[in-house]
Amino acid sequence: MTVQDATVTELPTLLPESEPFRMLGQSTPDSALWPRLYTALVRGRRYNTQATALTRQGRLAVYPSSTGQEACQVAAALALGPRDWLFPSYRDTLAAVTRGLPPAAALGLLRGDWHTGYDPHAHRIAPLCTPLATQLPHAVGLAHAARLRGDDVAVLGLVGDGGTSEGDFHEALNFAAVWRAPVVFLVQNNGWAISVPLAKQTAAPSIAHKAIGYGMPGRLVDGNDAPAVHHVLTEALDRARAGGGPTLVEALTYRVDAHTNADDATRYRDDAEVAAWRARDPLPRLERELRRHGLLTDDAAEAARADAEELAAGLRAALGSDPPLAPADLFAHVYATPTPQLREQAAGFGGGAGGAP
Amino acid sequence: MTVQDATVTELPTLLPESEPFRMLGQSTPDSALWPRLYTALVRGRRYNTQATALTRQGRLAVYPSSTGQEACQVAAALALGPRDWLFPSYRDTLAAVTRGLPPAAALGLLRGDWHTGYDPHAHRIAPLCTPLATQLPHAVGLAHAARLRGDDVAVLGLVGDGGTSEGDFHEALNFAAVWRAPVVFLVQNNGWAISVPLAKQTAAPSIAHKAIGYGMPGRLVDGNDAPAVHHVLTEALDRARAGGGPTLVEALTYRVDAHTNADDATRYRDDAEVAAWRARDPLPRLERELRRHGLLTDDAAEAARADAEELAAGLRAALGSDPPLAPADLFAHVYATPTPQLREQAAGFGGGAGGAP
Amino acid sequence: MTVPMAQALNRALRDALAEDPDVHLLGEDIGALGGVFRVTDGLAAEFGENRCTDTPLAEAGILGTAAGMAMYGLRPVVEMQFDAFAYPAFEQLVSHVARMRNRTRGAVPMPLTVRVPYGGGIGGVEHHSDSSETYYMATPGLHVVTPATVADAYGLLRQAIASDDPVVFLEPKRLYWTKGELDGRVAPFGRAAVRRTGADATLLTYGPALPVCLAAADAAREQGWDLGVVDLRTLVPFDDETVCAEVSRTGRAVVVHEAAGFAGPGAEIAARVTERCFHHLRAPVLRVTGFDIPYPPPLLEHHHLPDADRILAAVARLQWDLV
Amino acid sequence: MTVPMAQALNRALRDALAEDPDVHLLGEDIGALGGVFRVTDGLAAEFGENRCTDTPLAEAGILGTAAGMAMYGLRPVVEMQFDAFAYPAFEQLVSHVARMRNRTRGAVPMPLTVRVPYGGGIGGVEHHSDSSETYYMATPGLHVVTPATVADAYGLLRQAIASDDPVVFLEPKRLYWTKGELDGRVAPFGRAAVRRTGADATLLTYGPALPVCLAAADAAREQGWDLGVVDLRTLVPFDDETVCAEVSRTGRAVVVHEAAGFAGPGAEIAARVTERCFHHLRAPVLRVTGFDIPYPPPLLEHHHLPDADRILAAVARLQWDLV
Ligand SMILES: Cc1ncc(C[n+]2csc(CCOP(=O)(O)OP(=O)(O)O)c2C)c(N)n1
Ligand SMILES: Cc1ncc(C[n+]2csc(CCOP(=O)(O)OP(=O)(O)O)c2C)c(N)n1
Ligand SMILES: [Mg+2]
Ligand SMILES: [Mg+2]
C-alpha cells in the first residue's frame, strides 16, 4: 500500500489554501477577460432582479435568486469551453443563461412549464436539478463517458454548501477521483441551506478540505471575486481535460436574498449579516478594480447596463403570458413507445386536445 | 466565518499520522493489558478456524472470517467499557464474542436462525449489520441520544474499507462531527471489498484522511498491532466520553481468508500478497513481543490455548444441530400488535404450530 | 376550535413534546424557520434545539440517526421536507426501520414517526408533488397513516408518536391550509371513517382526495346517484370491516387517489375488497387515480389530479343497467 | 444448447458487449470475480475493465454515474449485487432514471438496464432475499422485466439492453442454476407466455414462482383440476390481452408470487384482471404470495415461499360449487 508515499508527496497539493484565493486588488487585470466578466455580472444582476420582480407579478411560480452569487455563476459559465458540460442546480439558472441559454428557457421549470425548458444536448447544460447533490454523479458519469470515448470534454458540477452533506456528494467525488474523471465540483458556499447555517452543516475547517478525503485537490476561493473564481475553475478544468482528474472548489459567497421568493429569511438571520456581505458585493468590487486600472469607461459601463436592460425587457416579454401547454402531452415522453396501459389512459383522457404523439 | 482560524489551529490535530501508529517493538508493554489482548487473540483465532470448519460441515450457512484481523476485533471489544455500545458489521462477530456474547448467539444469523441471535440491549451490541455502512448513522444516533440523556456512554462503529464509499458513511461522520456525538468510527481496512482492492475504492492518501473533511481527528494505526489499536481506540473513546467529539480510526490490516467461505479469492488476488500479510500475523507478533519482555510463560500460552479449545468445543456443541425454529413465529414481532391482516395470515397458516404470540 | 391542518399538526407535536421528554423532532429547517410548511413553528423556541433539531442536509442520515436514537429509547419524529426527498432515506426505512423489531425478536422496537408532506395540487415544481404511499404500503413493518381532516391530523399524529412501531405519516400538502374543527382527541389506528353514507355506490379514498370525493358525491346527487364516501385514514393497518360493510351494502365501489394507478394503493384496495365482497359486487371496483406518468408540471397538474368529473365518469361506468 | 440461467445471462451480456461498443457494465465485483453469481464471468477479461468495471462500493453512485453515462449516449448495464442493496440507489432511480426522458421532453433518454438478482429460496441471510418488484412497478417510466426460463433470460436481457428506456431487470436468484434451452432469440417486451393451457382455472405468475406453479398444475391433475399457467415475463408493460383471454376462458384465476401480498404485484394483477374480466369471473381472483412480513431466516423461508400446497388450497377456494 502506498499510504505513506501518497501522504508525503501529494498532501501539500491536495489541501486548500488557508486564505481564500483572491485576484481583485492583488493581480494585474486581464484586459480581455475582466471586462467580459464585468458585462456578464451586470447582466446577471439585472437578470436576478428581473426574475425576482416576475415572481411578484405571478409570472414565475418560484425563483431561487442568485443575487450576491453572480460572480460564481458567471465565472462558472465563462470558464467552460463550448464542448464542456454544465450541471446546474435550481439556483444556477444564471450560469445557464450566461452560457447562452435563453432566459425564458432557463426559467421554464420555475414558471410552471415542462420540467426542462431546453434541450440539454443542444446547450450542453444538464437539466436544472432539484434533489440535492443528485446531479453530481451524473456529472461524473458523463465526464467518464466522454473520456472513454476520447472526447476533449470537461464537466463542471455545481452544488450548494448544504448539498455537500448528502451521500450523493460523497459518492460522486469518490467515483470521480477513482476514475480520474474530467470533472470539477464547484461548491457555492453561500452560508445557508434555506434556514440552516454552515455551522450546523459541517464542522470541517472548510468544505474544500473534504477534497483530500477523496485524493483530489481542494481549492478555496473568494466567491465574490469573479476573476479569482474564473481563474481557479479554468485551472481545474484544464487539469481535468489534461487527464489530471477532478478538483473540488469551494467558493465563499453569500445568498443576499431569501432562499426563494417564498422564503422569509428574517425568521433565521440578522440583517447585519446581510449588510456585511452586501459590502462585499461582487459587482462594485470588480467595477472599482476595472476603473482603477482604466479598463472601464463610462461608455462601456453604460453599454453593459443597456445590454442588461435589453435582457430584462426580453425576459419580461417572453414571460408576459403563460406558456401554452397541451394537456394531452401529459402522456408524451414517459417512454419511447408508450405502454398499452398508457395508451389506454391517454385515449380515455378528456382533458384537452393536441400535443406530441 | 472561521475558515482560516480553523485551518491554522486545528489542522495539525485532524490529519492522521503519516506512518501507521505502532506499539509492538516500540513501546514498553502494559503488563496487565497486553497479556489480556494475547489471550483474546488466541481465542479469536481459534474462533475463526472453528467457525470456518463449521461451514464445511454445513453447520453454518456462511461465515465471513476475520482471520488476520483479530487484533482489530479484540482490541475494539476490549477498549469498550461496559456501558458503551458496539455497532458491528457481519464480519465482526469476533468483536461481539470478545465483548462477551456467547459465540452461538453471535453466529445465529449466519447459521440461518433468526436475524439477531441476542438481545442488543443486554449486551450493548447492535444487530450485526449487512447493508454496508448503514449501521454508522445508528451508532451516531445512539451516541447522540445517550449524550442528550447525560449518560456516560461512548459508541464504537465498525465498518470496512469498502463501506467507506457508501453515502451513509459520509452522512454518519458528518452528523457525528456536527453534533459532537460520543462515537468512534473504526475502519478495518483489510485491503479488499470482496474482490475489489482498495485502489479501486478510493484515491485518498489514506481513509483516515477523510476525517478532516468532517472536522474530526483521523488516526492511522497498524491494525495487526493489537496494543496499538487498543491504545488509539481507548484514547478516542475517552475523548468522546469527555465531550471531545468523534474520531475516525483507520486500522491497516488484511483479510487472510476469502470474503466468506462461499468466495473464491484466487479469482482476484495473488497468493504472494496473502503470504506477505501472513508474515505480519497479529498473533505471533504479539506473542514474540510478550516473550521478549518475559510477559508470557509457556504455561500461560498453554492456558490460553486450552481456553481457546474450550471455546471451540463449546461452539461445536452449540452448533451441533439445527436450532429449533417455530414456523408460526414468522408472524411474530412484525408489529407490537399484529395488524388484522397479519392475524388473518397467521390464522390461515398451516405451516406449523407453536411460537411466540 | 377551528384551525388549519398545519396548525393542528403543530399542536400535536407540541403536546407530544410537552408530555413525553423522549419525543425529539429532527429535520431540515424545522428549527428557526419552523419548517417550510410551518408545522414546527415555535417548537425549537419552546423546547430548545435538542428537542427540535435542524440537522445537516442528508435524509438517510436523518432517518438513520433517528433509528439510533430510537434504539436508545427515544421517540424521534422525523420531518422529510417533501415526498421525493424521502427517497434518499429509503434503504434506512426499508432495511432497518421497518424491520428492526422483527430483526431483534422484539428486543429493539422503533417508536419512530416519519412525517412526509405528500401529493400535489400546490403548484410545486418537479419532485415536490409525489404521492409515494405505495412504496410504504408495500413494506411490511410500517404503519402508513394519512389524515384528511383537521381533527385526524391532530389525533392520528398523536397516535403515531405514541405508537411503538414506525409510522409513515403522510400529510396532504394541499390540505395544510384547510380549516376544520380541532377536538384534541387521539385517534386509534385501523379504523376507517364513513364520511358520508350512500345507497348507490361507495367512494373509497384518503388524504388529499377526500374533499374531492365529497364534492363528487354532492355533484352526483344531481345525477340521481347517492354516493357514500369512506375515508380510510390508515392504509396500514387496513380497515376491511368498515370498507366491506359499506361496499357490500352498495355493491359498487370506486377507489380514488392521487398516486399513479398502476400498482398503486387502489390496486390493493380493489383487490382486497373484491376478494371479500365478490358476490355483493354488481360491477368491478374501479379506480380513479393519477395517471401512470411522472408528476406533471404545475400548469398541467389539475388535469392529472382526480376531479369530480373523472369520479362521476367512473361511477357512470359501474354498470347501472345491470341493477 | 442447454445451459443454466446464469450462463444465458452471461451470454446475453457478452453478445451485447460485442455488438454495441456503447454497452458498458458497471457494478460491484463484476470484474475479476465475475459477479457473486458469476453472471459477468470472463467479460472484463474479454472486453477490458472499461467495458466491465468494478466500481467503488456505492449503489447511488453506480446508478447515478450510469445515468450520466447514458446522458452521453452510452448504454450502461448496472448490476446491483442483491435486491436489498439496490435501495441506496432508490432516489437516483425514481427521481432521475425513471423520469429523465419525461423531464427533458424526450431529449435525454435513459437507455439503461439495472440488473437486480431478487427473491429468496437460496438460504440467504437477511437483506439477501427481498422481492422488491412492487417498488419498481409503482414507478412510472420504468420497464420491469423478469425471466423465468433460460431462453427468456437471454432474450429479455438482450431486449432490455436494446431498449431506449430504463429497464429494471429482475433475475430470480433461485433459478440461476436451473438449466434450460438457450435459443438465442431476442424477446420483445409486453407479451406474456402461456406456459400451459388449462380449462378450469389460470395461475398468473412470473419469475421464481413459475416452476412452483407448473408443479402445482401437475399436482392439481390428481385432484381433477386442469390448471393453466401464464408467465407474465414483463410486469411493465403488462400484457392484458393474453392474461384476460386466459382468465376469461377459465373464469377463475390465482396470482402467485414471492413478494409480500399487501400492495404487492398481485394486487395490481388481480385488480386489473377483475376490471377487465369481471363478468367472466366465477370467483374473485385470489392471491398466493409471501406473507406480509420481513423476509424470514433461511431455516424458515420454505414456509414463507408459495408452494404447491398453498396454491392448491387457493384453487380449492375458487368456489367450484358455483359452477
Ligand atoms: C434531497 C433533497 N432534500 C431536500 C431538499 C429541499 N431543499 C431544497 S433547497 C434546500 C437547501 C439547499 O441548500 P444549499 O445546498 O446550500 O444550496 P442553496 O439553496 O444555498 O443554493 C433544501 C433543503 C431537496 N431539494 N433535495
Ligand atoms: C449496501 C450494500 N451493498 C452491497 C453489499 C454486498 N457486500 C457484502 S460485503 C461486501 C464487501 C464489503 O467490503 P468491506 O466494506 O471492505 O468489508 P469487508 O468485507 O472487507 O470486511 C459487499 C459488496 C452489501 N452488503 N450492502
Ligand atoms: Mg447554500
Ligand atoms: Mg474490506
The CATH architecture classification of the largest domain in chain C is: 3-Layer(aba) Sandwich
Query: In this structure, how is the largest beta sheet of chain A organized?
Result: 5 strands, parallel
Q: What is the correct CATH architecture of the largest domain in chain A?
A: 3-Layer(aba) Sandwich
Task: Specify the CATH homologous superfamily of the largest domain in chain C.
Answer: Thiamin diphosphate (ThDP)-binding fold, Pyr/PP domains
Rg estimate of chain C, integer Å: 19 Å
Please estimate the helix content of chain C: 25-40%
Query: How many strands of chain C?
Result: 14
| CATH topology (fold) name of the largest domain in chain A | Rossmann fold
Compute the CA-based radius of gyration of chain A: 21 Å
Q: What's the SSE pattern of chain A?
A: HHHEHHHHEHEEEEHEHHHH
What does this entry look like structurally?
The complex is a heterotetramer, with two copies of chain A (357 residues) and two copies of chain C (323 residues). With 357 residues, chain A is α/β, with parallel strands linked by helices. Chain A has two domains: 3-324, 3-Layer(aba) Sandwich (Rossmann fold), CATH 3.40.50.970; 326-357, no CATH class. Helix content of chain A is 43%, strand content 9%. Chain A has 13 helices and seven strands. Chain A has helices at residues 3-14, 33-56, 70-79, 93-98, 103-106, 120-123, 135-148, 167-179, 226-241, 271-278, 282-292, 298-318, 340-348, and strands spanning 85-87, 155-160, 183-189, 192-193, 196-197, 218-222, 247-252. In chain A, the strands form two sheets. Chain A has a five-stranded parallel beta sheet, sandwiched between helices. In chain A, strand 2 (155-160), helix 8 (167-179) and strand 3 (183-189) form a beta-alpha-beta unit. The model of chain A is unreliable at 1-9 and 352-357 (pLDDT under 50). Chain C is α/β, with parallel strands linked by helices and 323 residues long. Chain C folds into two domains: 2-181, Thiamin diphosphate (ThDP)-binding fold, Pyr/PP domains (Rossmann fold); 193-316, Rossmann fold (3-Layer(aba) Sandwich), CATH 3.40.50.920. Chain C has helices at residues 5-19, 43-47, 59-71, 90-97, 100-103, 133-137, 150-162, 210-222, 240-250, 265-277, 301-304, 308-316, and strands spanning 2-4, 23-27, 52-54, 75-79, 113-118, 143-145, 167-172, 179-181, 193-196, 201-205, 227-231, 234-236, 253-260, 286-290. In chain C, the strands form three sheets. Chain C has a seven-stranded mixed beta sheet, with helices on both faces. Chain C has a five-stranded mixed beta sheet with strand order 9-11-10-13-14, with helices on both faces. In chain C, helix 3 (59-71) packs parallel to helix 4. The longest helix of chain C has 15 residues, at 5-19. Chain C is globular, with a radius of gyration of 19 Å. The N and C termini of chain C lie far apart (45 Å). Classes of the chains: A alpha/beta (357), C alpha/beta (323). Chains in contact: A-B, A-C, A-D, B-C, B-D, C-D. The interface between A and B is large, with 43 and 43 residues. One magnesium ion binds next to strand 4 of chain A.
